[in-house]
Design goal:
By secondary structure, this protein is mostly helical. It has a domain of 95 residues: Rna Polymerase Sigma Factor, Chain: A. The protein is 75% helix and 0% strand. The longest helix has 23 residues. It is globular, with a radius of gyration of 18 Å. The relative contact order is 0.12.
Length: 182
């Protein structure tokens, strides 16, 4: 017997509410994974289309957000397997950096300091580049944990693996990022 959450998901009108509630989080996850705002937007739309088409398969075993994150990660995997996307990914590298780095310009005390702002921007870019070079599963685990602030259980469910595997992916990802930042 489906629970109230899965029954709600089956209703097309209520699905709009699910999209409104989860769209920004899924977009941030995808942006962290693909590092291109246009691709992240397209993959976000694709994620929700896939979720809507396959909404009857949602069993309610996991939270809706976790289910959507898993679909999003699978969309990225599918995209990375497609050779045509490989061309466009290489072509579009470097786009969208200004948007991502604007947050680093504001220092904690609120006083603009060009030198500190530049250092902060460089540090953020170094971390972003290090994360972008991680293998997909490590990049996904890192993004879900440190950008989306998901629990290890949620990450394990989204990635379709055991908690120990998530911990391993996170440890390797953090170690790789630290090596590059030093």
């Amino acid at each position: 017997m489906p629970d109230e959450t899965s029954a709600t998901l089956l209703d097309a009108e209520d699905f709009d509410g699910i999209v409104r509630h989860h769209q920004q989080g899924i977009y941030r996850l995808l942006l962290g994974l693909v590092r291109n705002p246009d691709e992240a937007e397209a993959l976000t739309q694709d994620t929700f289309v896939q979720a809507f088409v396959h909404r009857a398969s949602f069993r309610g075993d996991a939270a809706i957000g976790t289910w959507l994150a898993r679909i999003a990660i699978n969309r990225v995997r599918d995209r990375e397997r497609n050779r045509a996307w490989q061309f466009w990914r290489g072509f579009s590298r470097g786009q969208g950096k200004d948007d991502a780095l604007r947050a680093a310009e504001h220092v904690a005390d609120g006083v603009p300091d060009p030198e500190r702002s530049l250092r902060a921007r460089q540090e953020v870019e170094t971390v972003r580049e290090a994360v972008a070079r991680l293998p997909l599963r490590q990049r996904a685990a890192f993004t879900l944990r440190y950008v989306e602030e998901q629990s290890l259980e949620e990450i394990a469910s989204a990635l379709g693996c055991r908690m120990g595997t998530v911990k391993s992916h996170l440890a390797r990802a953090v170690a790789a990022v630290r090596r590059e930042v030093r």
